[in-house]
Amino acid sequence: MTVSQHDNLQKLIKLLTTAAANASLYHSEHRQVIRLCRQALNELQLLFNTHSDVTLKVIEGQLIFDNKPVVENLSVNRLLESLNRNGISFLKIATDVYAEELLGLINILSKNPDKQIAVKDSENIHFGQVEIRFTRSDQHQLASWDFTEIATHEADRFMDIYQTVRSKQKLEMTGINEIVNGFVNAFNCQSDAFMAIAPLRAMDEYTYTHSTNICMLNLAQAKALGIAGQLLNDIGIAAMLHDIGKMFISPDILSKSEQLDDAEWQIMQQHPRLGAEYLLNTPGVPRLAVVTAFEHHMRYDNSGYPQAANSWQQHICSHMTAISDTYDAMRTNRAYEESLDTDQILAIMLELAGNKLHPRLTYNFLQIISERDKDTEPSNYTTL
Ligand SMILES: [Fe+2]
Ligand SMILES: [Fe+2]
C-alpha cells in the first residue's frame, strides 16, 4: 500500500465513521449523512483504481487492509468498535458499490439505540467472520506478514525524511509518527518482531537501519516493563530520532572506517546537542525525543557526553536508548574492531550494568535478549 492509498483509506474510514455518527444523531437520510456518503464513495473510487475490491478484516482487535494493520487513530478505533458491536470481522466492498448500499453500511455502523439494524449482504457489500471467510492463501499471506516487510516498505520514506533534514528543511513528523505506529502495531501482532532488527547493510542505509533497530529494541524494553499507549509511541519516536543530530555532522566523519582522531571525535560528540536543538525547534516533536536526543550518550554514571553534573537525572527513555545503542553497536561488526558473539555481548553488558548502563533496565534488556536473540548473526559494516 502506497502512502496515497493509505491516505485514501484513512479518509474513507473517517468519512464512514463521521457519517455513522451523524446517522446516530439525526437519521440516515439527513443531508449531512448523504453528503458524507457521497464523499466516501469518491474515496472508494480512488482505492478501486489500484484494488479490485476494498476488504477490511479484524484480527486480534486490529483492522487489517492489504494484509497489514491499519495505523490506529480515533476514526479507525470507532470503526473497529462499530464492527465489533455488529459481530463483523470481514467487510468487502466491491467496485460497483452504489450510494444506497453504502448508506446501508453507514446505517449498520451507526449506533442507533432505537432500532437494531440487521447485518445483511447487499449486491456489492459483503459481511462475514474472518475465520469462515479466509482462504488458504489468505492465511498464508497473513502468517508471512512480518516486521521486515514493513521495514522494507518504509525504508525509502524514512531515508527521505532524514535527507530532508540534512538539506536543512523541515522534519516531517507525520511520516515518523506513522512509521512508529506501524512498528508498534507490528509488535502487537507479533511479539517477537524485534528479532527482525536489521544489520547495517550500507552506509547510506545507516540512519534507517540503526534508527529502526534502536526503535525495535526500545519498544521491546518498554513493552516488557508494561509501558503502553502514548508513552510507548513516544519512546519509539524518541528512538527513531535519537541520532538525528548526525545529519549535521560531515559525511566524511560519519563514514570514516578508521578510528576518529581527537578533532573529529570532538565534532562527533556534538551530535546529541545538535539533534536536541533541532528537535526542540521542530513542531510536533514529543518532548521525550528532545530529551533522549540530548541524553543518549550521557551514561548511567553521567560520565559520557554532553557533560552533566553528577546530580543530573536522566529520563528512563535515555537510559533505554543507551542500552539499545550499546547492544546494536556491539552486535554489528565494526571495521576496526573484532565482532562479538551474543554471549560476549551479554557478558560485557552485564559488566557495564550499574556504572555505564542503568542496572535494572540492563537486566530487563538482557532477559529479553537472552531469551530471543541467541541465533542473531552479526554483520559486516561500520557503526559509529
Ligand atoms: Fe548517538
Ligand atoms: Fe545511536
Percentage of residues in strands: 5-15%
CATH level-1 class of the largest domain: Mainly Alpha
Number of domains: 2
Number of strands: 5
Total DSSP helices: 17
pLDDT < 50 stretches: 131-152, 193-204, 375-384
Helix content range:
55-70%
Through-space gap between termini: 33 Å
Explain this structure:
The chain is mostly helical and about 375 residues long. The protein folds into 2 domains: about 5-135, no CATH class; about 145-370, Orthogonal Bundle (Hypothetical protein af1432). Helix content is about 55%, strand content about 5%. It contains 17 helices and 5 strands. The protein has helices spanning about 5-25, 30-50, 75-85, 100-110, 130-135, 135-145, 145-165, 175-190, 205-225, 230-240, 250-255, 260-270, 270-280, 285-295, 315-330, 340-350, 360-370, and strands at about 55-60, 60-65, 70, 90-95, 125-130. Strands 3-2-1-4-5 form a 5-stranded antiparallel sheet. A hairpin with a 2-residue loop joins strand 1 and strand 2 (about 60-65). Helix 7 packs antiparallel against helix 8, helix 8 (about 175-190) packs across helix 10 and helix 10 (about 230-240) packs across helix 14. The longest helix has 23 residues, at about 5-25. The chain is elongated. It starts with a helix and ends in a 12-residue tail after the last helix. Mean pLDDT is about 80; it is low at about 130-150, about 195-205 and about 375-384. One fe (ii) ion (FE2) binds near residues 243 and 271.
How would you summarize what this structure contains?
The chain has 384 residues and is mainly α. It has 17 helices and 5 strands.
